[in-house]
Every structure is written in C-alpha cells, then in structure tokens.
C-alpha cells in the first residue's frame, strides 16, 4: 500500500514538538526533519549539504522537484524549500495555502536546535517544493448510488445472486423482470463488479424483500399515460391493482375505453404504475399499466374526402356539395345495372371515409364506419373473415361494435393489430372497402323513378366541383348518352 497525502500531513503534524537529528551531525537541523520524513514514510533520504540543495537533489525515490512560478502554489504534504542566505531553509507544508503564504512545520527555524514547530510561511525567497509520490486515494464509494430510496425499480434478468446482507443467495428466475420499491441503501465494504452499493427492495405484490447489488436494478421509466388521457382496458386484463385488493375484472369491462383520473407509482409484477380509470358503467377502478393501451389517435389515413357522412346521408341540401345525374333511363333494370357497375368502379374514390386506418403509439386499428344497425352482425362476421385471411392468429375478442353518436349507424373496430403490420393493415383496409362498396354506396350511388315513369341515376354529396366533373367524365365514358336513349351525366349544386 502506498502513502496517501493525508498520511503525509498527519506525520508532519505528529512531528510537532519533536526533535530529529537524522544524520547525527551538527545537532538538530531543518534538513534532518525532511530526511526523517522521507525515511519513515517512503524509505528514502536526500543528499545535500544544506537545505536549498534539495532543489537539485530532490528527484529520488519518486519525489519530484517543482520550481516556484508566479502561478504555483504548494500542496499539503509538500517539502517546501527556501533559497535565502547561504543554506536556505526547508520544512513540510501542512495546509491553509493562500496567495500570501501557507502553514507549515520546520525545525531549527528561529533558534538553534529548535524542535519541530508549526508556523506561518510567506513566499519571500520561496524556491519551490519537493513533492512526495503520494498514492491518490480513490474515495469509496466513488459516486452516489444509481437509485434512490422510494424509487420504483426493475430487477433485471441478469440478476443472479443477492448482496452480502442477503447472504449472496441465488435469485429465483420468477422474481426478475418485475418491479420493486427501494426501501434502503447501504454502501458495500468493497466494490463488487460495477456495484458500490447494496439496495433493499420490496414488492407491493409479494413478500419478496432482499438486498440486491445496485447494478442489477434499473429505475422504472416515466409513466406511459397521464391524467385525462383516453385508454383502453386490455381484453387480457385479469385483476385490478393492489389498491382494489387484486379484484377480478369482469369481462364486460374489458376492451372498453376509459379516462385516466390519477396516476400512482407501484411495485407490482410488470407494472411500475397504477392508474385510476373511470366510466359511467364501471365507476372508478385502479388498474395496472400493463393492462392499458393508449387510445390517443396519432395518425389517421391521410386521403381526401374522409367525411364518412357523405356516404351515409341522403342528399344534403346546401351550396357546398354537388351531384352528377343521368336522366331518362327507360328501364329500371338498366338503371340498377348502371348503379352496381358504378359502385364497383368508384369505390376507391368514394369509400375513404368508411374504412380507415388509425395508428396508436403501441398498435394499429382498422375502423369500419357507417354500418347500419340491422346489418351489423353480418358485416362484423365478414370483417372477421377478411381479417383472419390476412392475420390468421387474430383474436376475435379484439373486434368490437360501437354505436355512433347519431345512433343510426355502428362502427366496427378491428383493434390491436401489430404496429409492424402496417402493410397488412392497409391491405385489409383495401379488401374491406372493395368487399363492402355496394353496401357503403347504396345511398350515395343510387337510382330512382322520374314523374314521367322513366328512371334517373345519380351520385350525390360530392365534395367539390372538381370531383363532380371527374365523375361525370367517367360516367360519360361508361354510359354515353349520345348513343343511348338517356342523357349524358350532368352536374348540379345540391341547393
């Protein structure tokens, strides 16, 4: 073990009042104190006839001569050297170093054979120092603990044994990758791998309470959800949090949307937080983070004319919407065929608002809107068939029916689609729109009877004149009035 700076200073303090005659010649000299210092602590002695010779002979045994400069200041434990007179003077720095001087110890300083004495020294005639080869003390612990009392932490999968205060026993595999609360922190006697502390953790869920090496703990991330956010209670949730005595969750509450009323840290299983959720049917309930999914919409399919109501409503009378009409169709069967053909050709343009893709932070959802109440069961069954065609493992419990606010239609949520399946989800959206195009467009693309007994064909609720003109041109190509008994497609404002 080397000698530390603190040990050097302590030796100098202990020398006060003592007299040293290291070489046994000329009585008590200042140089004798320095040789005794070097001998006792480092096993070296210095050559030289007088004190100021140390600036030439001091580089021995790891000691290092440092000449004085305008910006230099000595350190405690340094051997100071003065070059005044024919012999100079020397001693040991104790401390209190300032711009004007320092406190040190010397002997034979003010009178012959004076024992070691503490006194103040200035920088007049100060030649420099001989610095001892002190061992740098690395403090232990060298830093604060990585976790704090009260933190919620995760016991990592790499944790193998507990710390000494829990007898270095093996850590069972069924307690790792779960969250715990930090109860107490103590420093280790010596560093163990990268750990300088041992941490007492406990669980809000089980009786597991052990001292763990700090390297095996990770502070829980910030809460995923905040007060006021909309969330969905997972269909796989089984129990409420400990605030509700692990109450079993009824199936009717699963898969529903709720609003977060409060957030509290916890140390339960996979969850570092518990959340108070509420609804009119559920009331208030504390549940775990692992059982919630974010319902904040981050992205909706970005296509023009997403207004789903244009496909659901009868002709809307205002000056902002257009329609295109073909009149004087002689047979109803002809009008019906024209409608079915047009729906099959125009659905990519006209059903954007009926099936669209929503992206949540953790998953995707395809939403089918504008489903008539009496058709919901059959549409849902077909949605499930098409979904399983793309995703065979899809869980039927993640598909649900929600009544729209106008209470005339339902929507169907095809939820919990993996986020890395966006291509599949878009393909599913395409297939659903194509499959239900006749159904979705039964109001928007339709026919009726004129007062003279003939029939008309129309596409209504078009968002602007450009879209109406585009569709009219398509209709003229399919159903040219110039060579038939009916008119060419005409454009009108729905006023």
Describe the structure.
The chain contains 9 helices and 25 strands. The protein is an alpha+beta fold and 495 residues long. The protein has 5 domains: 5-131, endopeptidase domain like (from Nostoc punctiforme) (endopeptidase fold (from Nostoc punctiforme)), CATH 3.90.1720.10; 152-219; 230-293; 309-350 and 444-493, Sporulation related repeat (Alpha-Beta Plaits), CATH 3.30.70.1070; 355-435, Alpha-Beta Plaits (2-Layer Sandwich), CATH 3.30.70. The strands form 5 sheets. The protein has a 6-stranded antiparallel beta sheet with strand order 1-6-2-3-4-5. The protein has a 5-stranded antiparallel beta sheet with strand order 10-9-8-7-11, with no helix packed on it. A 5-stranded antiparallel beta sheet has the order 15-14-13-12-16, with no helix packed on it. Helix 6 packs antiparallel against helix 7. The longest helix is centred in the last third of the chain and has 19 residues, at 332-350. It starts with a helix and ends with a strand. 32% of the residues are buried. This is Peptidase C51 domain-containing protein. Residues 5-131 form the Peptidase C51 domain. InterPro entries: CHAP_dom, Papain-like_cys_pep_sf.
């Amino acid at each position: 073990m080397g000698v530390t700076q603190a040990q050097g200073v302590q030796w100098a303090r202990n020398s006060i009042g003592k007299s040293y005659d290291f070489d046994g010649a000329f009585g008590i000299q200042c140089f004798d104190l320095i040789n005794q210092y070097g001998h006792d602590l480092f096993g070296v002695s210095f050559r030289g006839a007088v004190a100021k010779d140390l600036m030439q002979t001091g580089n021995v045994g790891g000691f290092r001569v440092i000449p004085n400069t305008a910006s230099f200041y000595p350190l405690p434990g340094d051997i100071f050297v003065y070059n005044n007179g024919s012999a100079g003077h020397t001693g040991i720095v104790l401390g209190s170093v300032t711009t004007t001087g320092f406190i040190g110890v010397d002997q034979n300083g003010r009178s012959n054979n004076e024992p070691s004495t503490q006194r103040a020294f200035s920088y007049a005639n100060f030649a420099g120092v001989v610095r001892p080869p002190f061992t740098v003390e690395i403090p232990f612990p060298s830093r604060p603990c990585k976790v704090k009392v009260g933190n919620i932490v995760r016991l990592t999968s790499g944790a193998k044994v507990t710390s000494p205060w829990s007898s270095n026993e093996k850590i069972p595999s069924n307690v790792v990758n779960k969250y715990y609360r930090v109860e107490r922190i103590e420093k280790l006697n010596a560093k163990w791998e990268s750990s300088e502390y041992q941490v007492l953790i406990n669980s809000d869920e089980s009786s597991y309470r052990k001292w763990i090496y700090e390297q095996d703990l990770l502070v829980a991330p910030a809460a995923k959800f905040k007060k006021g956010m909309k969330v969905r209670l997972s269909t796989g949730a089984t129990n409420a949090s400990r605030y509700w005595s692990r109450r079993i969750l009824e199936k009717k509450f699963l898969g529903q949307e709720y609003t977060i009323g409060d957030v509290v840290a916890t140390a339960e299983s996979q969850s570092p937080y518990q959340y108070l959720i509420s609804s009119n049917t559920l009331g208030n309930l504390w549940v775990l983070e692992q059982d919630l999914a974010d319902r904040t919409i981050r992205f909706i399919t970005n296509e023009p004319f997403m207004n789903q109501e244009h496909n659901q409503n009868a002709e809307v009378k205002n000056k902002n919407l257009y329609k295109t009409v073909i009149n004087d169709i002689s047979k109803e069967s002809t009008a019906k065929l024209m409608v079915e053909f047009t729906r099959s050709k125009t659905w990519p343009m006209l059903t954007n608002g009926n099936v669209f893709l929503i992206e949540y932070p953790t998953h995707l959802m395809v939403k089918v809107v504008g489903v008539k109440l009496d058709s919901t069961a059959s549409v849902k069954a077909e949605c499930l068939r098409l979904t399983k065609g793309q995703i065979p493992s899809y869980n039927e419990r993640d598909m649900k029916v929600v009544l729209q606010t106008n209470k005339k239609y339902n929507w169907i949520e095809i939820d919990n689609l993996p986020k890395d399946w966006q291509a599949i989800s878009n393909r599913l959206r395409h297939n659903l729109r194509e499959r239900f195009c006749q159904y979705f467009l039964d109001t928007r693309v339709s026919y009726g009877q004129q007062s003279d007994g003939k029939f008309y064909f129309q596409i209504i609720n078009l968002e602007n004149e450009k879209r109406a003109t585009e569709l009219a041109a398509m209709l003229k190509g399919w159903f040219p009035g110039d060579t038939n008994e009916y008119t060419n497609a005409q454009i009108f404002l729905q006023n």
